[in-house]
Amino acid sequence: MMIETSPSKAPFPIEKFLQLPSVELSNIALAACTATTTEKSEENKGAKCSIPVHVGLFFDGTNNNLERDRDGKRTGVLNEETKKPEPIASRSLAPVERSHSNVVRLFEAYPDKKNDIGYFPYYIPGVGTPFEKIGELTESQKGKAFAKGGQPRITWALLQVLNALRLTLSGGATPLYSTDEVCQLAQDYDKEVGRTVNDPYGSRTIITHKTWFETYIALLKAEIEKTPKPHIPKLTLDVFGFSRGAAEAVAFCHLFDDLLVGGKLAGIPAVINFLGVFDTVASVGASGSVARTLPVPDAVADGHWAWAKTLLEPLPPSVANGLHCIAAHEQRMNFPVTGLEGNGKFKQVYFPGVHSDVGGGYAPGESGKGRGDQSAMLSQIPLAYMFKEARLAGVPLTPFGELEPRTQLDFQVDAKLASAWEAYTAELGKDGALLMKHMELYYRWRAARLTTLESTASFKAASAQAQQDLRDSNQMLAGDIKALKLRRSLPNRTPADEVPKLSPSEAAEMSQWQRMRVENPTALNAWEIWALDFFEHPKPLSDEVMRFFDDYVHDSLACFYLAGEVTEYDKRVKIASVMKAGAERAKGFDKRVYDLAEKTQAAVKKKDKGEPLSPEEASLAKEAEFDTPFPIMTDADSADMRDTLILTQTSTRREGGGYFMRRGYYPHVGFFFFRRSKYEEQLVRPPSAQAPVNVRPQDVVAYEAVWFDDGMLALLEPTNNPDDATVERAKAFA
Prior knowledge:
This protein is α/β, with parallel strands linked by helices. The protein has a domain at 568-632. The protein contains 29 helices and 13 strands. The strands form four sheets. Strands 1, 2, 5, 6, 7, 8 and 10 form a seven-stranded mixed sheet that branches.
């Protein structure tokens, strides 16, 4: 279950990197030629007698949506009477404005040759975003927060596999189920599976995933038996996903495998040729952040409820190949990664950056990072490696040189990004498979930017809201450093009357995690001791490595809100709610929302009448054409935004963990409260040139047992003897 080292070379120039060796091209061409055979007969001239079916499934991440992020489609607020979204104007996005994920980019590259050719790509929008094909008409807070809608998306994908087979049989004329029928079935599955029913003999049985699908597979099998031509010799699936979409992709593989009988679906040999996922995050149901912040055992609150529980199992045998790109610098409590265990051809690799630096979803210039065009975004590098790895495994992605010009732009890598990448990986040295090395470089950069962040070109290029987020979060980092030093000076479990009282301003500077541990003195854990040292004894980085972090790595903690509106749709929903309540009920931040909305409406009316506008009115009216003017949110507004649940997690708008918390890694092993990651040995292994931190295990054990951290009991010595297979895979991927 080792996570492999980050690739040292940048995929630049992209045309050269994605050009496969002649031998590999020959193998792919041979496979394609031998897979499809066309025979003619007197009775059926020109008909294909054998059509292997290829299905590509692309599960997008939480709050990622192709139509919104690439095409600029906006969704109106739901009308309470009609239960349909209100009409709203959309506009085409310029390439520099697009923020579609790597899943969308791979979907664009998959051939769409249905009917008698046998290629069927299906795109599944991320949870929390509209997906009309399963009845979700607008964005959804429950989808974004709790992954509501995940199971219907998986069921929809399974049903489309059945449809693809039926369409092949009918020459594209007839699916097994219509769009409306699939929509209803995807919703019915959620209601019916797990329900207890009485059979005709008086026995009570539980409807399972397999028994629910039996009827639909039997119908398909009957269609196959009465349609001898074309013959379908094989069904090949390629499955991709990001974030919760990656979790859906993995769950899909398990649920698809459960439907196979002797490796066949409805009598057709079936295989999942490739599983390509970016930074798999489940967080379904009560997540790991709940176990960290409330007296709830990790065994209960691990974010792997319902359909996500299958992620904790090894990948099914039907998965032949795959790649899991893991974000080395993600830290958020709400984004623990779930590692995947497959056969020897499935590998997991660290890529520097945070969650969406790996899976995509940022627009160029967002938060001032990746300034320029699409090629300047850090997520382009894992995208290129995923594309190449998939092609090598036989995924029928269109070769780069044959892609449409617009799609080619979505895969380009900028020369400046490439040089910064290689400076970073050179600094990693031989330790690119170690989380602690990646985080060491990150902490060294944060220490250097603790007082100079606002002087960077990226900060100056960020939007006003992003600047506020980055400023607030950097101030919290400084406050947490003070908290760590204060905790270190206090004996563990100091009597309450001897604990120094924090002033309101001091408490406001700290993350909730650190503030609570100052007020209830708790010894530093091993990770905190190790990380704090980089701020107390700074170790400068080269200019190129500084540029890598300055210009390309986003701050996911700063710009991830537990409280406050995130998307443009969220802001319109908030404005509609505040305006409906009226001016007399608008207090605090809501009053600012109300006032700005009134001012915007007045400016739009004046513009429509042709009346002269002030510069401010002209700006508001222009922005309101295809966007929503909204007040800048600050940590000072937190009290107006948080509800009871959020108060258990944070004292600001962001989650309360801060920068000194190590990311969670699942699966966990152990009993109830005392659980630790299966990756623990690798996660706590220090870089080769660094001696282990001297920490008394008894101090850490007491801390972990109470607060359910990642179970890090001590830092382990590095191993210098990796197995031969690991060495060979590393060489192949370098």
